[in-house]
Design goal:
This protein is mainly α. It is built from 12 helices and 5 strands. The strands form 2 sheets. It has a 3-stranded antiparallel β-sheet with strand order 3-4-5, with no helix packed on it. It is elongated and about 65 Å long. The two termini are 33 Å apart. The C terminus is likely disordered.
């Protein structure tokens, strides 16, 4: 079960007091307002662990964020209050200092995935399968000795993955990375940093950034970003036709944009709706070749 750090300082922090004032405006007893504000924040962070692991909230509406916080009041009031109190950054809209709250958990998840992949590669077994009746949370030292040095070697993928702005399709990206030369890996990592700079400085939504597997795929898109941004790239170049919205979310009066997954299918990252017909009549310009 996922967890994150809950700092004691939050109890009396002025930012929490500010949030309580903005949300309740003196209409609720101070102790109740304080506890409600703390509860809203923790629900926001718990929800983000499942649906916004990188802290990016740009793809969610005010109503969706409010639902994640278990807030039944005005969603816009909630989001604007969280921004005014300093718990959400406005541009780009993301959870403030998200790494401070969930960084260790995210790193642990990445390490656990790597550990399981290495175990399967070296031992030909499911990393989650019990060994001789033992638990599955940790590997024994004797098990670690069975992992080959080549499987443990750092091929630079984790660095590339940490730099790349859009965290999606890690398994496919890892497969393509394994087929790259050492020189190309170095170029791709530098290119990923340039792409990340472009995405941040232009406030481009992540749905308009190619999947990492596409970026390092057969078309070698990363070479265009090796030195810096390709000629002509600026904020306006990221524009695309309006994205189609999820039919399931529309039933709830919510316009959730669809994006392409690594299989080329339109899908909704919020509710999981997926269109298997693989239509290509909508796609972000310039960067899209997924």
């Amino acid at each position: 079960m996922a967890w994150l750090e809950s700092h004691q300082a939050l109890r009396d922090h002025p930012k929490k007091d500010r949030l309580a004032e903005l949300l309740f405006n003196g209409t609720t007893a101070n102790d109740v307002a304080d506890m409600a504000a703390v509860g809203v924040l923790h629900h926001l962070w718990w929800w983000a662990l499942d649906y916004a692991q990188d802290g990016d909230l740009t793809k969610f509406t005010d109503r969706q964020i409010a639902k994640g916080c278990k807030w039944t009041g005005d969603g816009t009031l909630l989001v604007e209050s969280l921004i005014a109190a300093g718990f959400i950054d406005r541009k780009p809209r993301r959870i403030h200092d998200w790494g401070e709250y969930a960084g260790r958990l995210i790193v642990k998840r990445e390490q656990d995935r790597e550990r399981k992949a290495k175990w399967r590669a070296s031992a030909g077994q499911d990393a989650d399968a019990p060994q001789d009746g033992a638990g599955t949370d940790l590997l024994d030292l004797k098990d670690l000795k069975n992992i080959s040095s080549s499987a443990c070697a750092d091929d630079g993928f984790l660095h590339f993955w940490s730099v790349y702005p859009r965290k999606i399709g890690k398994v496919q990206a890892k497969k393509r990375w394994s087929r790259m030369t050492k020189k190309d890996r170095g170029i791709a990592t530098a290119a990923a940093a340039h792409l990340a700079d472009w995405q941040r400085e232009t406030a481009t939504e992540l749905q308009y950034v190619p999947h990492p597997a596409t970026f390092i795929g057969p078309k070698r898109s990363f070479e265009d970003w090796a030195e810096r941004w390709p000629a002509g790239y600026k904020a306006g170049d990221a524009a695309a036709e309006p994205a189609p919205t999820c039919p399931d979310c529309r039933k709830q009066n919510s316009d959730m944009p669809l994006t392409y997954d690594e299989d080329g299918d339109l899908h909704c990252s919020f509710c999981g709706w997926k269109d298997g017909s693989r239509h290509k009549d909508w796609a972000p310009r310039r960067l899209a070749d997924a």
